[in-house]
Amino acid sequence: MGNAIATLRPGDHVCLAAASDAEWFDAAVTLTAGGLRDHCKTILVTTIQPVERLHRRLAERVPGYPAAAVAGHVEIAAGRELYLSGGGFDGDRMIGIYAAAIDDSQQRGYAGLRVIADMAWAADQPLGERLADYETAVNRLFTTGWMAAICQYDRRLFDDATIEGVCSAHPIIDNGAAFRFRAVEEPPGLVLTGDLHRSNRRVLAEVLAPLADVPAALTIDATGVTFVGPEAAVMLVSLARLRREQAQTTTVVCAYGLGALLWKFDSTGALTTRGPSAHD
């Protein structure tokens, strides 16, 4: 278990490419204990381990677990029943289920939602790119910072191409690249931190896409970004160009190095950059 699991934050969407049952269970213990500590609703999706056995093992490892499970603060769902109900996998349906879980946890007064999902149910399904497409699309649920999730893929069950695809659909890879994002409502914008690598470019594209239609001046705070690849820079410039066609401005607040990279790709001056101020 790497640092991304131990330091899980609200809004994190982590891919854990595990190689043992113990690695997944340790992550489940860490997430569950943290969820109870922070008064978050916690959902565990299990495939390899039966639901009742996981309940028993967590009761042995997590203080206060039995009472929390009885009170409904922790729920365990069977992976195949959850993801494949209705005759097969439907990514949009699953996004709707998790969106409903977010709403429910907010209405019940929790401080957040924590999820860990054993994705082994997908190992014998002919999903192709649909699995990575789903993991990419579900990132939209994390922009508010309410939900944090760990998606566990067993390297013993999935081939290298599938592991590479699903990892690229997560902004955080345990023991790998990581970036975080958070939507801002007023003024409209987005906060980006961490490393914008080629490996997570599909996540950045998913997060930026809804911003093209924001009917107001947009500010992207990238002062916490520590690395930007050329692919990410091109995406930011392309967003600004789309928005300029709608007579809307786009500003990126960033350090000089990122600003220089953006200028390199912004030959038409669609994007405004500025350094951070004392008020940012």
From TrEMBL:
Pfam families: MEDS. InterPro entries: MEDS_domain, STAS_dom_sf. Residues 12-171 form the MEDS domain. This is MEDS domain-containing protein.
